[in-house]
Design a protein that fits this description.
The chain is mainly β and about 525 residues long. It has one domain: Porin (Beta Barrel), CATH 2.40.160. It has helices at about 1-15, 45-50, 55-60, 125-130, 185-190; strands spanning about 15-20, 25-40, 65-80, 85-95, 130-145, 150-160, 200-210, 215-220, 250, 255-260, 270-275, 285-290, 300, 305-310, 315-325, 330-345, 350, 365-380, 390-405, 415-430, 435-440, 440-450, 460-475, 475-485, 495, 500, 510-519. The chain has a 20-stranded antiparallel beta sheet that branches. The radius of gyration is 24 Å and the shape is globular. It starts with a helix and ends with a strand. The relative contact order is 0.12.
Length: about 525
Amino acid sequence: MVAAAGLLVVANAAAMDFDTGNDDLKIRWDNSFKYSGALRLKAPLAALASDPNQGDGDSNFGRKGLISNRVDLLSDLDVVYKGDVGFRVSGAAWYDTVYNRSTRNTAPAFFYNPASVPSSEFPDATRREHGRKAELLDAFVFAKGDVGGTRWSLRAGRHTLVWGETLFFGANGIAGGQVPVDVVKLLSVPNSQFKEILRPTGQVSGTVQITPDVQIGAYYQYRWESTRLPGVGSYFSTEDLFDEGGERFFLGGPVLARGPDVTPRHGGQGGVQVRFRLPGGQTDFGVYAIRFNEKTPNLYLNIPIGTYSIAYQKGVTAFGLSASRTFGDLNLASEVSVRRHASLVNDGAVNFTGAPPSVDNPLYPVGKTAHANVSAIWTLPTSALFPEATLLAEVAWNRRLSVTNGGTLALNSTRDAWGTRMVLTPTYRQVVPGLDLNVPIGLGYSPKGTSQAVSVFGVHKGGDFSVGLAGNYLNTWNLGLNYTHYFGTAGTTLEAGHFSFKQDRRDRDFLSLSVQTTF
């Protein structure tokens, strides 16, 4: 509460529109303050908590109780001249008391994956990532203008960019290759759309409006960053290897220490797109071509040198098409794409060479994949249950087309995979004076989640269900309460050394509460 009060004072003192004395120059500084808390609702299952390489996230928390007690501050500074030139800088800081105290883990040290701390403590990297951190988000300059009737825009610096028509399954589309994502936010904030979990990275991007019906866009990324995964031992972590806080791997008798990550070089990433509408048509089309380095890791077990490493595939190319059209209150969109030289889902590669693994010669399987997403955004008609509501839904499919380097695919994986997600949100306005209330109801399910093409695609015949209340009071305060339930056959991520595709969060149901305001 002291930390919350301190952040509130800072926000009140700092938020302002600056009077520059020039009507063409606008400077605004906004600050959002948020408190959030979450409770575990189920006791750990022995089958999930007892695995030496996958149980720390379960065992570090009690049978039931607090899993997060956090304050956040998001600060944004915008400077705009004549509406056409300017810059934006934003940053975030947070403090969570749960990760700054002892764990509930009573395992002996030789059964706890972090070697640097006893089981009563979170590893330092996890404590920083989840418990106390400040970071730079956006930091870019922009300009836009008109030359001979042709509109153009340009951004340079840290920012996000997302192409295509995906709602939830961005990892299965063109957007999955463009920027890293925040998996921690995805798991802790139910029903997040893909565009809401993107993380900015260094790049230059721009668009040119050739005609009213044709737009060309392009970008070049000069910096590579990995996706943010739950830190080892944090509540949503189900493997004790990836990424922050991963220190060792128990391989039966031998213990492998964390070796250097195998990361691609910065640069070498970019793409082009063409967005157009046919003359007299009502459908928006898109054509895309990108080259990227993957942001999610593969696993190496370097047996002769006694280490394990996480590695990221470089030089993947993807080509895609999209279409979007609105029919009254219903918008339908689709996207198809293929990838070349992409890493395929595997159980981990064993490196017997005695040399550190190389980013240029992957031992895990690499090949070609095909992907498709179909989504809908529907404003529902008034009914006896609600005066207004929206439905967001998406179906995703992918297929492994070929393996080009002879690597071994995950034993339990299949060539094709399917996944679905939908969110129904009834809205009730002025429930009491000044308060609008949403009731988001979300469901994610994978009838066939054993993908060979996307490593974080889903749980086979499992998923999650959530229901919540989201209120907005006087357009100033946002209030949230949400319950999340995980379903499907319980199982650790790896069983007998192979991906199980089972529900590794079967005992992680939680209730979350948040209060947020912007000054």
